[in-house]
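README: folding subset

This subset contains proteins for which both the sequence and a predicted structure token string are available. Records are stored as plain text. Below is the entry for Cysteine--tRNA ligase (496 residues), shown exactly as it appears on disk.
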Amino acid sequence: MAIELFNTLGSRIEPLTPSRDNTLRMYCCGPTVYDYGHIGNFRTFLHVDVLRRTARLQGFALKHVMNITDVDDKIIRNAALAGVPINEYTAKFEKAFFEDMDALGVERPEIIARATENIGEMVKLIEQLASEDIAYKTEDGSWYFRIAKFPDYGKLSGKDLEGMEDGARVDVDEYEKDAARDFALWKAVKPGEASWETEIGTGRPGWHIECSAMAMKYLGPDFDVHGGGEDLTFPHHENEIAQSESASHQPFARHWFHVRFLLVEGKKMSKSEGNFYTLRDLLLKGYRASAIRFLLISVPYRHQMNFTFEGLTESANAIERLRTFARRVDAASKNAALSVERNEELDALVVDKLAAYQAALQNDLNTAEARAAVFDVVRAANITLDNGTFGQGNVERITKLLADFDTVFDVLTDRDAAISEAAVAWATSEGRSDEVAPELLAAQSITEEQIEQLIAERTDARKRRNFARGDAIRNELMEKGVVIEDGKDGVTWKRK
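--- output ---
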């Protein structure tokens, strides 16, 4: 079945299906690697991840291209301040970006394209536009796109461009003014800046040209879906369309997918507000990577999300409920003494909620409704597990539901301790140990092997009726963020 997805181009929900064979061809704008990624950035990348995982759940193959912007105004400025070449400066933050993506469980695209490795393709595209008088050269050797030559300019953002002034130019890579201006395709060399010697002169590319050149290189002149944050709609994506369609004389991307901003505690995230957080900031505060992932995708991509720390705690608790439930189902599947072959009422509910889960994702990636369907099953099945009416015949469909859920949400496997440990190691190497929460340091001070040894000692103490020692061990583990639970199947433990 097709995914029904809102298309910014035309502002309507449309079926998203591959235009050729069974492969969904998609291009999504990646990071500008000038600093560590913040949670607003990662909300976009996570919802792109939801899109690709849902497409695969529908049976589609994927050819997903993501660019890495490793040269632009900010990078040049920051590298100069740091006193290092831009390639050395960007390598650090590109590495950090992919570490953060891995921590959040974001799948790697099939193709990663770096701007500095595709200068030749950008130059060829500019030459093609120049041959039709759509690109023009200025006295300083820079090249600009002549917006007046593209009558459809504004069709994505819906901006009123009647006041467009032919020949008025904007030189910066990013701008917020509604008034359209001819934008830079190629910037002439300036003292101290990175540059390339090319057929169109010595300089460097403007920001917008890279995505057009690389999308067409890897996906062809037309493809299925182009995604990114809502802030890219204008001017970046508008300019991509103008460049690409002027060169190819055919539609560029059929479907445009934009993820909305997030607020933090009800306010726009900014350093001046003191509410600006990178993923690493949150990990060092002791929050789990899985909880951050779950929270950032809990609100559907077309809705503005209010990120709160209360919500982050609730997200961690919700994941623990899911993991506990998955363990209970697994234990039940191995319990030969179950008295009921199949609880028919529960089975019917699971069938209904599995269909509801799939329908919610197909309906414009409604992650909130998809989540709710799964938790309805968790509540009902837990009751049957508690009262002894759960049967072996219920295991298969619930296992299928959990597998489909985790194909998209990917939070059931617990990787949090290793991710937190890596974050603490990074903070230590960067001289930022003072930013690590004390409780996280305490948790990192005890290994799994040591936990198991203490639990074994506690079990032995309780057998000898030395309950004081048993309680002391429980308290010691609690202080280090380890919770132990005594059950009929023995002692289990988890990190808080």
